[in-house]
Fold each of these.
Amino acid sequence: MVSRSYSNLLDLASGEFPAFGRTGKKLPRVMTVAGIISDLDEENTNSMTSDGPSSVTQDRMIIVGNQLPIRAHRRPDGKGWNFSWDEDSLLLQLKDGLGEDVEVVYIGCLREEIDPAEQDDVSQTLLETFRCVPTFLAPDLFSKFYHGFCKQHLWPLFHYMLPLSPDLGGRFDRILWQAYVSVNKIFADKIMEVINPDDDFVWVHDYHLMVLPTFLRKRFNRVKLGFFLHSPFPSSEIYRTLPVRDELLRALLNADLIGFHTFDYARHFLSCCGRMLGLAYESKRGYIGLEYYGRTVSIKILPVGIHTGQLQSVLQLPETEARVSELRDQLKDRIVLLGVDDMDIFKGISLKLLAMEQLLVQHPEWREKVVLVQIANPARGRGKDVQDVQSETHTTAQRINERFGRPGYKPVILIDHPLQFYERIAYYVIAECCLVTAVRDGMNLIPYEYVICRQGTERLDEILQLSPSVPKKSMLVVSEFIGCSPSLSGAIRVNPWNIDSVAEAMDTALVIQESEKQLRHEKHYKYVITHDVGYWANSFLQDLQRACRDHTMRRCWGIGFGLGFRVIALDYTFRKLSVDHIVSAYRRTKSRAILLDYDGTIMPQTSINKTPTPEAISTLKSLCNDPKNVVFLVSGRDKITLSEWFSSCDKLVIAAEHGYFLREKSDAEWETCVSVADFDWKQMAEPIMQLYTEATDGSSIETRESALVWHYQYADPDFGSCQAKELLDHLESVLTNEPVSVKSGQHIVEVKPQGVSKGVVAERLLSTVRQKGVLPDFVLCIGDDRSDEDMFEVIMSAMAGPNLSPVAEVFACTVGQKPSKAKYFLEDTTEIVRMLQGLATASDQMARAAASQTPPQ
């Protein structure tokens, strides 16, 4: 039998054996006995490509979720299981949007616990019949994973509930966290059994599997991986309280595409990445992306839709029509308001009931006319909070009915037992208005279902005695804290905590003109019918394909341990500078030009004390003392500061204020590289900068002879960045007719004379070396921000000109992996200094060797 092959397990299951293979042991099943993994680094080798050739020519999507879209029932004789599709599962419904040419494989858990002795047979049956790969979890491990970490920690926190006491969600428990990581690892192992990493797409769903992307990316660096979060993502002030906040963010960033229902959720995620990981995002041609170690992680914002075809087919069932007829007779002469919610603390059922009570108090004319039907679905979680909600809901409903009820009239009809789908549909059909008052919900598709059902069918129109020529109508009162709210522009949006406001919204929904109800329904219906689950899935797949199209064009390798693992992806022409390589080139060349930035290159940007270290001074001295070298230090700092700091480096050429001032030796006079008539523009720019400084805590103004610089490194990241954009626009508009350039850099906005740039310094360096009579055959240029790109451009373009030797070795190097005109990079200032020390050591060694070979006089 063919041995285990990650890319061909499905072929083996279907009997289609590949042409290649090795004999070996039976396909193993992933071990799922109870256990916690604490060491995530059992695989120290990081694959850059797949394990073998592809055997699948058809596009394939592996959909991974906590639960498979499968219903399992024990056979009547107790021997074996019967399986069927769960038609209500979103994971099954989204298949309609992927196209018939896309094969879909599902990975997830079953709702029922399967005995270990039956797991192999069940796995084979599901794989062959449904293309499903079940993940079996031991009961204890599943409890810690799902009811523990997911429901006690992530779910409350993502719904803005802080564990301020043990009763409110519970304190963070590292054992539960380890269980969560363990289960994600088991899911990753299951994916590895079926994936063809060169061709397959993987789509992971929801907060249960947030660290799964790290395990997959670690095994397959170029895996095509998407993730969609179906819950809210909280603001940074809430999320930052999670002890494993960085681990979850970095794990999600190992996906290629991350999807959210609303812009608010995406904005909160991006804010967390900026505040906690220091990552900035940018929007290009309508797409939002985060640069993460050379990879672009795309952000998708699109609310999920419903399966309209399924709803319309259920509307046509005889059972639905019969139930609608029953409800029509049962609730005749009553106006029905409908609520459909899970019985949990965030759905706001009790707030809805209180609003109903307030409606009957403030508007007695609705008594004995309006009925609130509240369908309370069984809670998905468990615990004291669920019991409290159930108790409060029943108590409140009972009190309202006792206060306002009359013989034959109950203002609140509470249905807290499971309903068949067609029964729920029937309530949608007869309801005049649908109420969703959740205090926090990721999406909530109830309003979408209601709108489709209110469109009805011809047969339902006959039952309800509606004229086919009269436009349909519906009304929605929705909480502003649910994901579907922004897409329902015709709904009445409410703050569910404001009971009076919700009651007034209910009254408005009842008294509004019929024509207005019809217009609102038509608007909602057009949106829901065109933005169904198929549209959502197809859009996500298209964006995932776009996000992954450059995978084969980049070199990839993994770094980091555990959940800190990430993949560096770089263009094939952009690579890390090898110290051995540059030292070797340095030793064999005769005329060298070295151009160095200071802040962010020799000195870290985060350092408070910017004075150069003794080691940096010693290194620069050694480089300057080598007669084959011309060393330029170029900085945005003023000339007085640079003169003091580098007074001991006699031969160091210093360019201050980005090249406006230049000094060739320590005893030489400073000269200006660019002629500037006057600096009257400062009188216009400085008051504007002062205005923004007063309004932005943590910002400051640096006044130079040739420039004004506004710094916001110590301001709030989001506010500082926003203020910098405003300041840039303000200065550009005011200084339009002045001979200056206004530019933004790393945490700065700078105004300086036109023509002043580090590119001018680079040209001066090359001409200085040429004056020695020898063309440079070694050029090293290092910088870290946008201002240094001018240097890189000059140096790289000089390779084809007369200023360099035809055999010159050119090293344009930036700090960190980012888009740059440089061809090389080093990770940080520590690596830069270490490389420069290597060059200085080579100079010292060559000087000593030359001295030992010189005969005594």
Note: The chain is about 40% helix and 20% strand.
Amino acid sequence: MADLSLLQDSQEDTDGLLDFVSQDEMLTPLGRLDKYISSENIFNRQMVARSLLDTLRAVSEDERDCVSVLEQIDRLADDSEPTVRAELMEQIPHIAIFCQENRPSIPFAFSKYLLPIVVRYLSDQNNLVRKTSQAALLVLLEQELMERGDVESLVCPVLVDLTAPDSSDDVKTEAMAIICKVAPMVGRDVTERLFLPRFCEMCCDSRMFHVRKVCAANFGDMCGVVGGEATEELLLPRFFQLCSDNVWGVRKACAECFMTVSSASSPDVRRTKLSSLFISLISDPSRWVRQAAFQSLGPFISTFASPSSNASQFFRDEERSGAQTHSTDAEAVCAQQEPAGREEQDEDRAAQTAESLTADDSQKCLPSSSEEIPEQELFNSFHFWRTPIPRIDPELELLEEDRRPSAPALDRKHLQELIENLEPHIDDPDVKAQVDVLTAALRATALDSGLEDAFLEPRAARSNPFSSQQPSELLSADTQRRVTRDDDDSDASDCCLHPEDERKSKQQDVVPQALLEQYLSMTDPSRAQTVDMEIARHCAFSLPGVALTLGRQNWHCLRDTYETLASDMQWKVRRTLAFSIHELALILGDQLTAAHLVPIFNSFLKDLDEVRIGVLKHLYDFLKLLHQDTRRKYLYQLQEFLVTDNSRNWRFRSELAEQLVLLLELYSAQDVHDYLRPLALCLCTDRVSSVRWTSYRLVSEIIRKLSSCSSLLVSFLGELVEKFCHSQKWSGRQAFAFVCQLSIEEECLSLDQFSEHLLPPLLQLASDPVPNVRVLLAKTLRQTLLEREYFLSSVNCQQVALEHTLVALQTDVDKDVKYFASVHPGSTRLNEDAMSTTSSTEHLTSCGLCPRGPSLALLV
């Protein structure tokens, strides 16, 4: 009995629930809205806010109902529950878009009902509601759903009021952030009148550094909106204050936006004021600030380029191809103690350069030769031990203990023996220093004997069998002049270059010399220890933009740095250079590329796969810039791309196939037949399907390339028939059908040549035991060949065989083969149509009305 009563109660509850649901369904959309908008259940009111858009769509045909829904939205906006208000604000942009699309039915809906809610929520006490309203405001501005007058009269004054001194710190910080994002959308006029005075005031806010940090992070955007005149008069003084702020996070934000600030400034201000300011950031006591400054150094240098060069294009893309930006979450470690052990040599060097940049004269940007340099500064690695070192000044006492006058007189043989003996212990820093000194002495002797090229040429070029440049061609003009001058001097000490002379050899007048020296120092090993382990990669990423700024006439300033980066032990650094070497080649031109970039390019070809992929992805872009004779030498090396460190790296081979398609236009038909053809056939038999299908397109393009030479074409087509059409593997026979289909669709060869060489073996595949091969054959015949009038006319000698093959495929045992060989592939009675067509042709043949077999007119 108890169980029975339980069942009855359960049945009654179910009936009550069903009655409730049925009553709910009986209500109109407005009725349900009125019922639940005043519910005491918070969840019900949230569901009302979430379903407002659906309700509007349901009543969109009636203007009065739409107005009623909008009035209910205004009522819901006064809800005391923050989650309900936040849910409503999330729906506001979608409702606004709907109102804009249905503007004739509900005019002025947004400005009268929705915009006041957004403006009111900007100052809501709840953080979640404020954040949601800010996001909604940005969406409305991006979609241009707000009238300019409404933005200026309603939104902007509220944002300015939220940044008043009596506002809370969180509200002030959020309001300033939203002002910086709204400024580019509202334009220069509104920004200068409403936002700029408060922005300048917030830059000097002494209460909360968070507000100053927000201003510093968005300083570049604000400069870009107001223009150069307002930037120099009002904003730059505040920017100088922010760069010297007591909080390192503010200074770091300034360093990160330095490029955009410089772009909005005049060239004179950029050279005389911003350069010295940037040097102070590079020498900042905080490691995080120095790290951000060095990352922005290359982009900042690019702003010195002429407007026509567009050097800053290398830094505006957020996605760094092959080299993603390394960022450190400084706030996560702000509690840690700042590194205090920064080397004194960095401080001295940065201080000297900062002082030298304060003068207006560009010549004063260089360190004064009359200044006394500490002895330890003369021996640091930045000045002496960076490779390659042309010469050593014998006046410097490099080896003070027992320095014998006969030491410089060692011949080349003895120096080489000493270096070979010390190389097994190269890991020892002291031994490495001795090896560097001996190597420099060996270079000095090479200069006297006219053999300097053996050491200045990169290692990869010396081992490259395809390098045809003479050693003298690999030297810059400046180096050759020094060699000629030194050969005329009989004194060995005169050929040694003083550090001051080495510095002068890298001087230019495009950017302040101090900035360039700081950029060149990014390859110094000490920088990795005191600034950032990834600093060399940032230098490599910035190098094309810096090279474009300096111009090819100043390439000698960057050549040593580029070669140092190309031999860096971190593969990520070399990978970055590999991805951008084609851009650098375009900047330098064919002569400098052949002399300086080709040897490094050759070394990248033998590097890790992570580096080789950068070269491979832009192989065509680089080779097309080379001379034809130099370009042809790489035909021998293309086969090396088939060998990878990991055989599962199939994307490497797929990229090779895509590049080979582009490379066809750079070589003659004979070279394509001799070198690219074997690679294409090898890729066609790859284990990965994606590589094979890409290679089939490569084969069809080779056919197009060889069509100009009949003998090469006939030979290649015969090889295709032998290797693929008669292959023991069904995938090879299927590949032959697909290549034939591509050759016709892409018009790679004439129809007469196709009918003579490829059509007969193609039709033989009709009896292939594998249905997949017959399916592709049916598609090729029905969808490609029979679309050409040539194969429907009696001129074609293969017409009879083509007719019989198509009939055989229409009666195939496999339904998929029948489908693609049928007369009407889109019909629902495919099999019946195919069978009826076959019966008709057989009847005509038996009656003697079709002596040559079934007509293609009936099959088409």
Note: The two ends are 78 Å apart (CA to CA).
Amino acid sequence: MSDTRRRVKVYTLNEERQWDDRGTGHVSSTYVERLKGMSLLVRAESDGSLLLESKINPNTAYQKQQDTLIVWSEAENYDLALSFQEKAGCDEIWEKICQVQGKDPSVEVTQDLIDESEEERFEEMPETTHLIDLPTCELNKLEEIADLVTSVLSSPIRREKLALALENEGYIKKLLQLFQLCENLENTEGLHHLYEIIRGILFLNKATLFEVMFSDECIMDVVGCLEYDPALAQPKRHREFLTKTAKFKEVIPITDSELRQKIHQTYRVQYIQDIILPTPSVFEENFLSTLTSFIFFNKVEIVSMLQEDEKFLSEVFAQLTDEATDDDKRRELVNFFKEFCAFSQTLQPQNRDTFFKTLAKLGILPALEIVMGMDDLQVRSAATDIFSYLVEFSPSMVREFVMQEAQQSDDDILLINVVIEQMICDTDPELGGAVQLMGLLRTLIDPENMLATANKTEKSEFLNFFYNHCMHVLTAPLLANTSEDKSDKDVVVGSNKSNTICPDNYQTAQLLALILELLTFCVEHHTYHIKNYIMNKDLLRRVLVLMNSKHTFLALCALRFMRRIIGLKDEFYNRYITKGNLFEPVINALLDNGTRYNLLNSAVIELFEFIRVEDIKSLTAHIVENFYKALESIEYVQTFKGLKTKYEQEKDRQSQKLNSVPSILRSNRFRRDARTLEDDEEMWFNEDEEEEGEAVVPPVEKSKSEDDFPDSYEKFMETKKAKESEDKENLPKRTSAGGFKFTFSHSASATNGANSTNSKSVAAQTSPASSNGSSSKNANLTAAVTATKGSLVGLVDYPDDEEEDEEEETSPRKRPRLGS
């Protein structure tokens, strides 16, 4: 079966008149008893199954095309084709078919394809085995010629024969002379016939005829004929456009006359295809395939000729980067490059590789860096298009350039930072350019297309570079729009808190949504780098400020960012979220959304449902202990009840585990039994908490994973009670309507005994115990100044209160320590 001569692909024609590939196999011709005749069989090369079983019918018209294709119709609407790997195999099977039908194998069609109506119409015409005899090229014969040309289009054989006749007799040039005569005589009827004739000749789809029609001496007359469409009241003025309106701009004079001629010809043929000829119907769509190929190969030739002329390209680059070049000239140079890169897409992969390497060698990237930073919007837009071709072709080439550049330049002028700044400063209200640039950045930072070689890994090098030099530029608008007047590092207990800024401007909101989309991509793909960045910048807290935005799409982007983080099920992230009490803004958004059943509602509930289904213990405990009172009224989904159940089951499990451990081990930190080292670490964390817990992380905000329960439960409860006397917490304040409300604020305000809550807080009557207002946990999380220490405590696990009634009174999350 490994005989490549007989290797074929089987195709069938679908309803859209497109060929569907039915599989690859090996063809044979054998007598099939069931079909009572010689048949073509194709067995799949993968598993030997039968792909095709077709009886060679004596009356079926089989066609051989391009030496390796055999095409035929089995039924009225069922066309089949065999595409052979080798010509020899095609010839062999063709002989078998001709043998069955009693035909000479030298023919290309075994039966005449003309249908009955055509036969009637052409009964006076000569035998179809000879070339078609063309009427003499005279004015009074134009109608006859037009009828002949349009009538052969439905028959592939007759089209071939007409094309040969036109070619042999130099007929096209004679027709174009008649066109000039008709135009001079203003013979409208003749001009309408010539339109039909020239259009019909184009549809013959013959490259040899195109060569004649699109030559310098003929092309304008061909365009002229196509102006006189009988369907139009007035002829179109295509020639006027091509000669007067369309200007050929030479950014640098092109000395090669052949190259100039090719460029002119390609433009005009493209114009004929795109503007003059009507969009082909479903039956005509293959009529112009050769025209498409003609344009394609012209473009390949133009790119190759320009590429070989290094002097020309060097001159273009020199002018592009020269400060003395005026703006108009520079715009033309950039547009030339854009078109040049667009043409290059027609090249084969190997040639395209050479093309972009030539551009890189000549310095396309430093040149782009200059033009992308210019004020001219058109120039920037064209430069972005060129940059997108380069990134699409080789992200590694661009990455390598920016890393080398970083060693010599400031961060401000790095190419990637120029790109980010263009994205941030896009003036388009719809941010079209920013969306395109964001896509390019995403490609550049995607580890999937980074190479790992023996001596270096591009991934680690580039990501280190990106997070050190570029990430701060990307997140700047996000941090600026979620910032407060003071810096986090200078939080002093009792300082006045300013209201959080929230971007209500639609364009800003769109930009922040784009940045969040990119950061969400980073969370999924850059585990280590982005984790450090989020922790160091307290980024999630800043992002969740956007849950207050009046633009729901932005609030959803912020939620999606958090959802991706939780989706990683990483305990580092979980501790960060619980210690920072970062579920609060999400729950506030859910409560503020009320009973509205919308995307925000569904997205928030899906987040909690994920935590329940995946049984993320630390988050479950944190949510139930801190927020269950506010959420228990939500009964249209079972999510929150389910979380409570999971929490209680886990609590029971832990109690049983504690009861089963001998008391001597429970109080002995230095035991060495079968339990894991993690428990020792847990004890160490617990003791640390007693010493340093005053600093940043309030002891009630802790995580509850299975391993995070303390060994000494009794000892922990004593510690807990001691802390309660020091710290009091306002749990969700009960509103006048009897519901609950959390306040999500960022810094303490103890000077006047009240704090300004964020825009989502509602006025609520509070009990005397909470009349001081709720204060921020941000001071606790990031850099609170306390009486004992100012140092930061690492993000570690803290044990939690198991008793819900105590939890209602005591959680210092909302009140800064006032020990000082």
Note: The two ends are 89 Å apart (CA to CA).
